[in-house]
């Protein structure tokens, strides 16, 4: 029997595979959204990244417009818009436009990281001031453009059209205790980036819950965690489909902006001992492996974190295997094999 208390969503990066054009990658993202909707996922989110040759999700609002046109029931949203890169009014107008087009199924997930390197962040923001100290003020202004601002706010006379009065479902995204605490104090939903910051997940979610104050948006805390999934019954396929992404990540850690890695290059690549240890640590708390292994790993994460849901980030190099991951996770969920224990569910409240 399906554990209906566990919510399943999808995070997509509009991955550009080796040999693909940007158009191919973006159309692939839209296709993945239709697959997720057909399978019964609750949400489909796209991330904001800039200057990365293998990732084409630099303009979430634009991509979400295409996703919204191709779907009809699944919630669509940003996972997330990196608010320091944008004027809050622009974000309010963009997502107000999306909600005018696609109604109440549009989410607005927000983060405070740049989603890129320092030089690109400066080009986006047109300033060399890259600190995030003003993030709470920007967030308050953005919410105010939807809900109305205090009369003392200098921006109170400005109206977001579309946007004002059409309040989206707000989510704050993060990979630290800071974002968790801000989400709790504001009383909004929180999504933790476990898929790339797995060491801090439990502590951040506990801080979110302990900091939570009921608000006009939520009466109780609500959270989900991102988890990367690569699955196949043949472990060689799992290794092969994981390799291009791992090679790219290693090169990014070395300061490069790598082009997509071909399957031939990945098969020939010889990971040294340090790289193998790095990969092992990176995937240890993700869901890589057979269906049985994926079920065990996802259920274990739900138990240890008390999260209300999982946002699945398919990590395979090729689209058929990314879709296979979504199909496998949803099948396991419907079979009742992805569950939270009663004690974990209680700890989430």
Total count of helical runs of at least 4 residues: 13
* N-to-C CA distance: 23 Å
Largest sheet: 8 strands, parallel, barrel
Low-pLDDT segments, ≥5 res: none
Helix percentage range? 40-55%
- Please report the total strand number as a whole number: 10
The secondary-structure class comes to alpha/beta
| H-E string | EHEHEEHEHHEHEHEHHHEHEHH
Q: Which geometry do the CA atoms define?
A: globular
- How much of the polypeptide forms β-strand, as a percent range? 5-15%
Q: What is the residue-mean pLDDT, rounded to a whole number?
A: 92
Give the strand line-up of the largest sheet: 1-2-3-5-6-7-8-10
Radius of gyration: 20 Å
Question: How does this model look, in words?
Answer:
This protein is 46% helix and 14% strand. The chain is an alpha/beta fold. An 8-stranded parallel beta barrel has the order 1-2-3-5-6-7-8-10, surrounded by 8 helices. Helix 3 links the parallel strand 4 and strand 5 (106-111). Helix 1 packs parallel to helix 12 and helix 2 (60-70) packs parallel to helix 3. The protein starts with 6 loop residues before the first strand and ends with a helix. 46% of the residues are buried. The model has no long low-confidence stretch (mean pLDDT 92).
């Amino acid at each position: 029997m399906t554990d209906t208390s566990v919510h399943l969503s999808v995070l997509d990066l509009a991955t550009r595979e080796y040999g693909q054009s940007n158009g191919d990658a973006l159309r692939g993202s839209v296709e993945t959204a239709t697959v997720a909707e057909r399978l019964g996922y609750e949400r489909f989110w796209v991330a904001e990244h800039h200057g990365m040759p293998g990732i084409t999700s630099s303009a979430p609002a634009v991509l979400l417009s295409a996703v919204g046109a191709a779907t009809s029931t699944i919630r669509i949203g940003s996972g997330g818009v990196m608010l320091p890169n944008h004027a809050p009014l622009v974000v309010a107008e963009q997502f107000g436009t999306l909600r005018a087009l696609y109604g109440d199924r549009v989410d607005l997930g927000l983060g405070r990281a740049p989603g890129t390197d320092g030089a690109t962040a400066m080009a986006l923001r047109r300033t060399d001031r890259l600190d995030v100290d003003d993030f709470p003020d920007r967030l308050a202004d953005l919410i105010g453009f939807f809900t109305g601002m205090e009369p003392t706010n200098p921006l109170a006379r400005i109206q977001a059209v579309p946007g004002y009065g059409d309040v989206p479902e707000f989510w704050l995204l993060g990979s630290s205790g800071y974002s968790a605490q801000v989400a709790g104090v504001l009383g909004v939903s929180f999504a933790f980036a476990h898929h790339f910051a797995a060491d801090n997940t439990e502590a951040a979610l506990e801080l979110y819950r302990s900091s939570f104050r009921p608000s006009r948006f939520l009466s109780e805390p609500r959270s989900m965690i991102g988890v990367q999934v690569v699955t196949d019954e043949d472990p060689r396929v799992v290794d092969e489909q994981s390799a291009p992404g791992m090679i790219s990540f290693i090169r990014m850690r070395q300061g490069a902006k790598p082009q997509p890695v071909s399957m031939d290059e990945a098969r020939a690549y010889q990971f040294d001992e340090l790289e193998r240890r790095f990969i092992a640590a990176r995937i240890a708390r993700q869901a890589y492996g057979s269906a049985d292994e994926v079920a065990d790993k996802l259920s274990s994460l739900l138990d240890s974190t008390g999260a209300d849901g999982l946002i699945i980030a398919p990590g395979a190099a090729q689209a058929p295997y990314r879709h296979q991951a979504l199909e496998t996770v949803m099948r396991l969920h419907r079979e009742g094999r992805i569950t939270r224990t009663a004690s974990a569910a209680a700890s989430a409240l």
